[in-house]
Structures are given as structure tokens and as C-alpha cells.
Amino acid sequence: MKLLVLEAKLHLREWPQLLFTIGLPVALLVVLGLSIPGMTELGESGERAVDTQLPSIMLLLSLLITACTVVPGVLAAYREQGVLRRMSTTPVHPVRVLGAQLLINLAGGVVSTAILIVASSLAFGTAVPRQWAWFVVVFLLGSAALMAMGLVIAAVAPNAKTAPGIGSVVMMPLMLLGGVWIPRELMPDALRTVSDYSVAGPLAQALRDTWAGQAPQPVHLLVVAAGLVIFGGLAVRLFRWE
């Protein structure tokens, strides 16, 4: 608990970064929803893109920014500044350090999600996810999997300057696979297959399903859970105090 409180205080000091992480997806949601033709018109499914597709994609973008740039940057800076080396002389286990980072950034993701849902509702009259319970499950599972990926980046990054850069290189293809650049329905078959086995693709689709009032497909949950186990295990194994 002491570690969590300390990390929370340090996290709040980086308020410009927090504003960017929260503000960029919200701004893109409003701009894209108002500027792209057809976003606010009823589609063949009887729903608008701003009701399900756009908010789920922007939520994925917010989580990717946090996982791939914020988390690696913080831990790499701790290592470079000797904070982790000093922690290594105490009874603090690496799992607790990684767990504290995961929980703090997960809390930030909750706040970002709440603001995104409110902004979408005010701008376009979008309803909250209809399968609310499943939405919470998918959000927590997907956030943990992406944060674990960010912890792996932090573990292998040589210093604080390169960590966000490495994270950005990882984030760009994940944005593509998650449908941020191209809707999953319009992807070529080969790219769609790769997307189905990435964490970002199944997570985006599962979020969209819960917004549309459907339960997520079990295979999507399985892929995201596998990502959490794999990347979480790698993060603990590759963690370095200095």
C-alpha cells in the first residue's frame, strides 16, 4: 500500500502527460465523429459508428498510449536514476514494483474511460456500453494485458530516452491491428488473420461488442488472457533492478 501511495503521488506530478493521454483520444473522438461523413448516420446494422466503433477504438488508443509510452518511460527512468537499484536493497520484490505500476496506470485508464464515455454521450448521444458487466471484464483484462506488454518494453529498454521510442514502434502496428487506421471489416484477409491473434484486435472487437449489447466472443477473451499471461511472465522474468 505504501508503494501504491508513493507511485500515485509521483504519477500525479506528471500532469501534462496525463492530460495528453486522456485528452488526445477524447479530442479525436469529437473531431472524427463530426468530420468524417457517415459517422453519425445509421448503418446497415441500425447503429451509428459513433455508437460503438469510434468510442471503442478511441478507448483502445488511450490504453495503447499509456501501456506503450507512459509505463516504459516511468520504469526506465527509475532504473536510470538508480531508484530501482536502491529498492533492490529492501524486501520489495520485483512483482510488487511491477504490480504497483500496473494498478496505478489501470486507475488512470478507468478515469480516461469515464471521461471518454461522458464526452461521447454529450457530443453524439452515445449510450454507455449495453453489456456493462462484460465491458468491465473486457476492459480490466485488456488493460492488464496491454500494461504487461508495456512492462516488457520497460524491462528491455536501455534507458529512459529510448523507452518511449521503442514503445511507439510497438504501438503503431498494434493500432493498425486494432482497427485504428483501418476498420477490421475492411482489412485484407491476411491482415485480419494477424489481427485476430494480436491482443489489440480481439480487445477492440470485444469492447465494440459490449458497446453494441453483445457478449464478447470467447476466443477474443482467450487471446487477450493469453497475452496477459505471456507478457506478464516475460515482464517478471526480464525485469532488471539496474
Automatic annotation (TrEMBL):
Q: Kindly list the places in or outside the cell where this protein is found, as annotated in its UniProt entry.
A: Cell membrane; Membrane
- Chief localisation class: membrane
Q: Give one Pfam family, short name only.
A: ABC2_membrane
Membrane-spanning intervals of the chain: 18-36, 56-78, 102-126, 132-156, 163-182, 219-239
| Annotated PROSITE patterns | ABC_TM2 (PS51012)
Q: Which UniProt keywords apply?
A: Antibiotic resistance, Cell membrane, Membrane, Transmembrane, Transmembrane helix, Transport
Q: What is this protein called?
A: Transport permease protein
Organism for this UniProt entry = Nonomuraea purpurea
Its ancestry begins with: Bacteria, Bacillati, Actinomycetota, Actinomycetes, Streptosporangiales
